[in-house]
Specification:
By secondary structure, the protein is an all-alpha fold. The protein folds into 2 domains: 10-98 and 176-454, no CATH class; 457-578, no CATH class. The chain has 24 helices and 5 strands. The chain has helices at residues 10-34, 41-64, 80-100, 109-122, 138-141, 162-173, 179-198, 203-214, 217-222, 229-245, 247-262, 269-283, 287-316, 328-341, 345-354, 360-369, 373-376, 383-395, 413-427, 434-469, 510-519, 527-533, 543-554, 569-575, and strands at 128-129, 154-155, 475-478, 501-504, 522-525. The strands form 2 sheets. Strands 4-3-5 form a 3-stranded parallel beta sheet. A two-stranded antiparallel ribbon has the order 1-2. α4 (109-122) packs across α6 (162-173). Keywords: Membrane, Transmembrane, Transmembrane helix. The chain crosses the membrane at residues 12-31, 51-68, 80-101, 154-171, 178-199, 205-225, 237-261, 267-283, 290-308, 352-370, 382-402, 408-425, 432-452.
């Protein structure tokens, strides 16, 4: 421990963490619940998942404070033969979790669009041509997150292609759901390599860094989904490991990684991570290296904000249906507009704290406090770019909709863990690991609660999708009124629209409904079907849809989606609840 750095007892660390969490939770509850400011899906999930988890965590933290100081049991050296199998096992658990926890279902439109793009990329396409007979209904079939380029003739994901391309690659190898777990393994391996570089003489700090990462429910659960955020975490850590490796090969490789990362889904995420490191290089007077990485940021804008939209324009045609929004000015303008309209730091950062290690924020705070500012302004403290990146990720606390934790700061979980390792190395005696073990156990308990609540939340949507998918109708019209986010059930099978063709009833005209009823076998999926499955209530109405439904009833075109017939006598008995 450097001279002048006082010892921080585990008791004080635990109590400070518990008090800080309690104050933050109190402010969040008052603002979003008592005063009902900014009520959103994030607040619903906060009350159902994060608030109870954090209350459990801070109570256990305060309870354990008097017993937190001590050595604990001794861990082996954090060598590859120990760390790599642990990381691989976590990756396998994430892969299994997609089927056990999420029931092979992706809840949000963001995830579905990523899988939709992976499906057509797997077929060697840049977009999915819209069958002629479905062109009049194209927006009801693909309600949002579609690219405007050639939108009259093609369905194309609005996001950049790399995340979907990675999924398509794993799909070709057998299972697209392996993409997230493999990226998780890559990210954690790179985090370990960075920790070894930063703490060559403190194996306990390496272990602290890795235990913070390994116990992150946000990392593990998000890796079960098609979200691009696991890729951002992984490639950020790969980039940092290459930069710290140094040399021409290291920096050139880091530049390539940054360019790939920017194409995952939105190009502005990697520059937010990289910019503080360019400042760090400039402070250290590493002019050539700083200039190279600054040029990389320029290349990111040129490739993904200019060349890629130009390619889509050439390949698919002019924008239709909605205006293009891939330009630099559009992206920056949209970001500032969302900061004004949808900035919710209290609830989003509460979700971040709940889904990561209970000691991650307190230890990262120690890492910032331990920074030697004279060295920092000379570019000798890596804590500076790590802290600036974490600050930027947390300040961009925009409303995210779905997400397990706060996914917009997902790429900064690695820096938070590294700051935690720095704080440990500078404020804690070597080998006194008992507090991190206690924090790890507390985190596992809260993570178990979060996983259970996630399963409960996802289950009715997965069951609804299975019910729609099993329909033998040509078309299923989804009437989402009365249910929370039921519009996200409008999707195809494994990313491919087909029979039944699922449409959002609210995006159809009376004439279109008449034409569908005359031409196809049509079924309805509404609150009569999804409410018994457990989809949460949502109080909203739309008079125009009342008119549509009344017209369909008069035309005899309002048959509900029927559950599939049982295939065996055992299935029939189960369906009848064994009643004879």
């Amino acid at each position: 421990m450097p001279k002048g750095m006082p010892f921080v007892s585990a008791r004080r660390l635990f109590l400070a963490g518990a008090i800080g969490l309690a104050l933050w939770l109190g402010a969040t509850f008052l603002w979003h619940v008592t005063w009902r400011q900014g009520v959103s899906l994030a607040v619903i999930l906060f009350l159902d998942q994060d608030f109870p988890a954090l209350m459990i965590g801070l109570f256990l933290l305060a309870l354990a404070a008097p017993f937190a100081e001590g050595m604990g049991f001794r861990l082996p050296q954090p060598r590859a033969r120990i760390i790599v199998p642990i990381i691989v096992l976590l990756g396998l658990a994430a892969w299994a979790g997609h089927y056990a926890l999420f029931q092979d279902y992706s809840v949000s439109r963001d995830e579905e669009v990523a899988r939709f793009a992976a499906a057509y990329m797997r077929e060697g396409l840049f977009a999915r041509p819209i069958p002629v007979e479905w062109e009049p209904y194209r927006r009801a079939i693909m309600p949002e997150f579609f690219s405007p380029f050639g939108a009259a003739d093609y369905w194309t994901a609005a996001y950049l292609p790399v995340n979907s391309a990675i999924q398509a690659l794993f799909w070709q190898m057998g299972d697209p759901n392996l993409a997230g777990p493999v990226l998780l393994v890559l990210g954690l391996f790179s985090l370990w390599r960075v920790a070894l570089h930063l703490f060559p003489d403190r194996p306990d700090a390496v272990w602290v860094t890795m235990l913070l990462g390994l116990s992150s429910a946000q990392l593990w659960v998000t890796a079960m989904t098609p979200y691009a955020m696991t890729g951002h975490f992984a490639l950020n850590m790969v980039w940092l490991a290459l930069v710290l490796r140094g040399g021409i090969a290291g920096h050139l490789s880091a530049g390539v990684v940054a360019l790939i990362a920017a194409g995952l889904h939105q190009w502005h995420f990697p520059p937010i991570f990289i910019a503080p490191f360019i400042l760090w290089m400039l402070l250290a007077r590493r002019w050539t290296v700083a200039a190279f990485h600054a040029l990389t940021l320029v290349a990111i804008v040129i490739v993904w904000a200019k060349i890629w939209p130009g390619f889509l324009l050439h390949a698919l045609g002019a924008p239709t249906d909605v205006r293009p929004s891939a330009g630099v000015a559009d992206k920056v303008g949209s970001l500032f507009q969302r900061l004004g309209d949808r900035w919710q730091p209290l609830v989003n950062l509460s979700r971040y704290a709940a889904w990561n290690n209970i000691l991650m924020v307190p230890l990262a705070g120690l890492g910032v406090l331990a920074m030697r500012w004279r060295d920092a302004i000379r570019g000798r403290e890596i804590a500076l770019p790590l802290a600036l990146g974490c600050l930027a990720g947390c300040l961009l606390a925009l409303a995210q909709g779905y997400g397990w934790g706060f996914r917009y700061a997902h790429g900064f979980i690695g820096p938070f863990c590294l700051l935690g390792g720095l704080g440990w190395a500078r404020f804690r005696p070597q080998g006194a690991m008992r507090p991190i073990f206690i924090g790890f156990v507390v985190t596992l308990l809260t993570a178990g609660f979060l996983v259970w609540r996630t399963h409960v939340f996802v289950e009715p949507y997965a069951a609804s999708h299975r019910m729609i998918d099993a329909s033998r109708a040509d078309v299923v019209l989804v009437d989402p009124r009365g249910g929370l986010y039921v519009t996200d059930l409008v999707r195809g099978r494994n990313g491919v629209p087909g029979k039944p063709m699922v449409m959002n009833l609210g995006m159809l005209t009376l004439d279109q409904v008449d034409e569908l009823c005359k031409t196809y076998v049509v079924e309805l999926f509404d609150r009569a079907e999804f409410r018994p499955l457990g989809v949460p209530l949502a109080r909203w109405n739309l008079g125009r849809m009342d008119t549509l439904r009344a017209h369909m009833k008069l035309a005899g075109c309002d048959r509900p989606v029927q559950p599939p017939l049982p295939e065996t006598i055992d299935d029939a008995m189960n369906a009848a609840d064994n009643a004879m």
